[in-house]
Each structure stands twice: as C-alpha cells, then as structure tokens.
C-alpha cells in the first residue's frame, strides 16, 4: 500500500470523515502516519523481532568504520568468512574475533565485516506519497489505527495505556513470524520476518 492510499483510507475512516480533505491536510496526515510509524519502529527495535533487521558489508580503514546512519541497534557482526565476532569492552584488547563500538564507530582488526542491525525510522515526506509503506502490509491496520489516535489528539506523557496497547498490538502481529521468510514477487522487497 502506498502512502497516498493509506491517507485516503484514513480520510474515509468513520472517525475522520474527511474525503474532501477539508478537515486535515495531507501534511497533517503524513505527520500522524510518521508518529505512528515511529512508535511502531521503536517497539520493533526494542523487541526480538527481525522485521527491521538489515545486513550490510562494511570496509574498515585502519581498523574502524562508521556504522550506517539508520543503525539503531547492532544485532551481530561477522568477519569475511561469516564467523560471528564477539563484542568486547573498552579495556579489552581487540583481536580478529572481537569488535568494539564507541559512539557510532565500529572497531575491529578485520578489513571487512558484515553487520546485521535494526534499522531506524526515516521520516516520510510529501514526496513519498507514491512510495510503499516501509513495513509489511500486515502492519497497515495498526498504522491506520494509531494514525487516527494521533489525529484525535495525539499521545502525551500521560497516555501510558495507549502506548502499552500499541506495544501489545505490535507484539501480537509479530509473534510467530520470527522464523518465517516471505519471498518477494519481484515487485517489492523481500521481507525477512
């Protein structure tokens, strides 16, 4: 589903009834979608779910490299042979089977590593209207639901129940998907869930 289609769906919701676009601008709806997506991404990043996991190969210069800008949580680091490296603390000496992260920099004696990490949320803009949603289709009802909550007044510090319910909703749709692999039809990205 594209952002434009989701916006149309939100406008048609009984609680919004804004098909003509008189109550809410596209920018307000994109903002509510961004807020909902950010909450969902934060919940997924804190969970064991691999939905946000991305793998990338990094080349190191003089034993260090910057982590990708969208890296929220580092999951695993592998050497060029696919062997998992072990994280170590600041006082320990690096060797070919270890790594250390300080700030946004990864240190290891290897020349090339492959990292698996949880991707952070990138804010959607009006230019993304024809783009697909950044999460699998089974998240659409949840994104819509919490976008509507945002439009109705948002979530503040006192709305712990709403945040707890959203967390419960995310966990309920990601449970039992940890070891599934959905193959792409060629028109969209494959999702490892």
Describe this protein's structure.
The model is unreliable at 179-185 and 188-193 (pLDDT under 50). A 4-stranded mixed sheet has the order 2-6-5-4, with no helix packed on it. A 3-stranded antiparallel sheet has the order 1-7-3, with no helix packed on it. It has a two-stranded antiparallel ribbon with strand order 8-9. The protein folds into 2 domains: 3-49 and 121-175, no CATH class; 53-119, no CATH class. It has 193 residues and is α+β, with helices and mostly antiparallel strands. It starts with a helix and ends with a strand. The chain contains 4 helices and 9 strands; from the N terminus they run ααβββββββααββ.
The average pLDDT is 86
- Total strand count, please? 9
Count of helices? Answer: 4
The number of distinct structural domains comes to 2
- Specify the oligomeric state: single chain
Q: What class would the helix/strand composition place it in?
A: alpha+beta
**Strand share of the residues?**
15-25%
Through-space gap between termini: 18 Å
Overall radius of gyration: 20 Å
Helix content: 25-40%
**Which regions are unreliable across 5 or more consecutive residues at pLDDT < 50?**
179-185, 188-193
The description of the largest β-sheet is: 4 strands, mixed
Overall geometry: elongated
The spatial strand order of the largest sheet comes to 2-6-5-4
**Would you list the SSEs in sequence order as H and E?**
HHEEEEEEEHHEE
């Amino acid at each position: 589903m594209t952002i434009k289609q989701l916006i149309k769906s939100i406008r048609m919701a009984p609680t919004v009834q804004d098909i003509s676009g008189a109550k809410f601008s596209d920018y307000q709806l994109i903002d509510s979608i961004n807020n909902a997506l950010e909450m969902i991404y934060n919940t997924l990043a804190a969970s064991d779910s691999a939905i946000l996991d991305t793998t990338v190969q990094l080349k190191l210069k003089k034993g260090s490299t910057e982590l990708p800008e969208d890296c929220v949580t580092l999951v695993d680091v592998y050497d060029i042979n696919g062997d998992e490296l072990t994280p170590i603390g600041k006082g320990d000496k690096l060797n070919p089977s270890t790594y250390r992260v300080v700030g946004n920099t990864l240190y290891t004696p290897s020349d090339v590593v492959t990292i698996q990490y949880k991707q952070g949320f990138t804010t959607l803009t009006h230019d993304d209207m024809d783009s697909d949603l950044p999460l699998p289709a089974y998240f659409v009802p949840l994104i819509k639901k919490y976008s509507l909550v945002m439009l109705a007044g948002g979530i503040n510090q006192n709305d712990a129940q709403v945040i707890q319910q959203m967390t419960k909703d995310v966990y309920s749709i990601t449970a039992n998907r940890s070891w599934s692999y959905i193959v792409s039809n060629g028109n969209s990205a494959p999702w490892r869930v």
